[in-house]
Design goal:
The chain contains five helices and 20 strands. By secondary structure, it is mostly beta strands. It has a 20-stranded antiparallel sheet that branches. Strand 7 (about 185-195) and strand 8 form a beta hairpin. Helix 1 packs across helix 3 (about 40-55). The longest helix is centred in the first third of the chain and has 20 residues, at about 1-20. It is globular. The chain starts with a helix and ends with a strand.
Length: about 450
């Protein structure tokens, strides 16, 4: 009787602690401590552990109830504090200069669902309306910021080699930020095919149909046909090929073609100063060829990576879309390229990463609304370096630093009348500098 009473008292106390903490490891440690103190016998401890597990599994605190058709649910998120310096030297007699330190933050929260019948879905919320970032700048009387939808998608996998996804989706293409900022989530549909050819080769086919901007379909109340605008679309196809010649050694090449169509009458909301106009979808027919060689160095993952983009309509984009009629075009205006090296990764406590790349971005080569908004502060006609490093203090807490230094690819590009730098921020800086200090935590 005395033993049972003692067990009951201890069990009640342990149940309260377990309900408060919801950590089985804490309860286990406490039971073991009571055994060492002689309060409980080994047999009594085992019975208490079994009772706690039973109690935990039969209460609402012990489980998350989901629909029967949900096979798996993953909830994820991260927060980031950033202290950042942004500087630039304007091209037109020192105008458009910028020297600014700013504190910024970002939050993202999402969920991935695995359903029955080969369906998956997900969504992500974030702290910005910009297409190329979720940053918010602090310093407005402690004001609050909005929460926005960054992802909302549904995917179906009818066969092992095919996945079809639609909605606001993660970028399905193998690419670099020469063409796509890592924060851009296109809207539309994508089809991903993948086949294993033998033990070493993987061949894929990725197709995308993205509704870039939705424009007015009718003539409006006035009846004027001039108000009719075509929707802007991006149609793309890519063939990624990977050859695995060792456990950690591989080569990937992924040629692709992107075609922009329609007349974009809507301003795209970006974090870049180079995209405030309505010039997004004209004269962009881009061939790309990204790739990498992966291997191990110092027992760390490493890779050389590259990208190449050529806009076959680059001259028309510069002369007709941007109105720079006096610019003598050559190949460098129509091409963007990158070459870089990365050593290490950031997965768990103690991991570190360093990386460096050099790139050139021709004035007519890519869409400034979609490429990296940090390099060159979003301006085109830039070349320069990006350096970055990161370290994992814990499995969930990471520190990072990134540094950008760029300068003109061509100097004194002029518009009509030989007045430099009047194309909406696309080519109006001589040089830029950006330093980012980050602390990121995952939850």
């Amino acid at each position: 009787m005395k033993s049972n009473l003692k067990k009951l008292v201890v069990l009640v106390g342990m149940a309260v602690l377990a309900a408060a903490s919801l950590h089985a490891q804490d309860s286990k440690a406490l039971v073991e401590a009571l055994v060492k103190k002689g309060v409980l016998t080994d047999q009594e401890a085992e019975e208490i552990r079994a009772d706690l597990v039973k109690e935990f599994n039969t209460t609402s605190a012990g489980k998350l109830e989901v629909s029967k058709h949900v096979k798996q649910l993953k909830i994820y998120g991260d927060g980031r504090w950033r202290y950042e310096y942004v500087g630039q030297e304007g091209q037109a007699n020192g105008t458009n200069n910028l020297h600014n330190w700013q504190a910024r933050y970002r939050i993202r929260l999402g969920a991935d669902y695995a359903f029955t019948d080969n369906f998956k879905a997900g969504f992500e919320l974030e702290s910005s309306t910009q297409n190329d970032g979720a940053n918010q700048t602090i310093g407005s009387g402690f004001g609050k910021f909005g929460v926005n939808v960054g992802l909302l998608y549904l995917s179906y996998k009818p066969w092992d080699f095919l996945t079809v996804t639609g909605g606001k989706i993660r970028n399905p293409f193998y690419t670099t930020d020469v063409l796509w900022d890592t924060d851009v989530a296109p809207e539309g549909a994508a089809e991903l095919f993948s086949w294993n050819v033998g033990d070493q080769w993987t061949v894929g086919l990725t197709a995308g149909q993205f509704n870039y901007t939705e424009n007015t379909d009718s003539a409006g109340l006035t009846g004027s046909s001039s108000t009719k605008m075509q929707d802007s679309w991006i149609y793309a196809a890519q063939v990624p090929v990977t050859y695995q010649f060792g456990k950690f050694e591989s080569v990937t090449v992924a040629p692709a073609f992107y075609k922009f169509t329609g007349n974009n009458a809507s301003t795209v909301i970006t974090g870049s100063p180079s995209s405030l106009g309505t010039l997004s979808a004209e004269n962009l027919n881009i061939i790309t060829a990204p790739g990498d060689v992966s291997f191990k160095v110092l027992n760390k993952k490493a890779k050389f990576y590259w990208d190449f983009a050529y806009n076959v309509s680059g001259e028309s984009r510069i002369h007709q879309t941007y109105g720079i009629v006096n610019q003598n075009n050559d190949l460098s205006d129509n091409v963007a390229w990158l070459a870089g090296f990365q050593l290490g990764d950031n997965k768990k406590k103690g991991d570190w990463l360093v990386g460096i790349d050099f790139r050139q971005i021709g004035l007519g080569s890519v869409d400034p609304n979609l490429n990296d908004s940090d390099f060159g502060n979003g301006n085109l006609n830039q070349q320069g370096l990006k350096l970055r490093a990161g370290y994992n203090f814990t499995d969930f807490l990471q520190g990072g630093v990134s540094y950008f230094n760029t300068w003109n690819l061509k100097e004194n590009i002029a518009t009509t009348g030989q007045t430099p730098n009047t194309v909406g921020g696309l080519n109006n800086v001589n040089a830029t500098t950006r330093l980012q200090l980050d602390v990121v935590w995952k939850f």
